[in-house]
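=== RUN LOG ===
request id: a7f3
mode: sequence -> structure
chains: 1
length: 187
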Amino acid sequence: MKNYSSFVRFAIYFFLILSLGLEMGCVRPTPTVGPPIKYLLPNGFTGPVVIAFDRPNGNNSEEINGTKIYRIPGNGILELRESASYISRGERFYYEDAGGGLSEIPQAFADSEAPDGQEATRISQLDPNDQQVYVTGRRMGKFGSTDGLVNFRRFSVGRISDSETNSFNGDKLVFEYRRTTLKSSSQ
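=== RESULT ===
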């Protein structure tokens, strides 16, 4: 066997370990890209929204012309049977009146969460006293339940002056929802 320098041996071992790590799945998979999503909220709704996925007793979403429709109930919690798509090709939010009429709710993003390469309304650029209602604080996550992992999306609907409170209430709603899933699963 040839006598390699310690640098060459190090390089061989390094690339061997790296290739094994890549082969064994240590690399993050490409996220699933889903269809556009249209969120329909009850007219005048403000507050946090949680959408829980992979729920055995959940609803089925609608799909119209290749767009998923998520109808958010008045309590702000929508349980769906389907799995979450981690990237959507476009999310739009609407108030839906009793007659089915829609009015779009604009989105506002924290500087750190604004979509790359797109014009986006940033919270830091808005007047805190503006009375316009916006969708803010969009997050995705998961938590453990007695019946497995629950993937969820959450966001808040309200005025910019209420965005911090709405964000806190969104986290609280996720926590409460998790608590009820644990409680109902154990009964």
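=== NOTES ===
Residues 5 and 11 are 10 Å apart (CA to CA).
The first strand starts at residue 33 and ends at 34.
=== END ===
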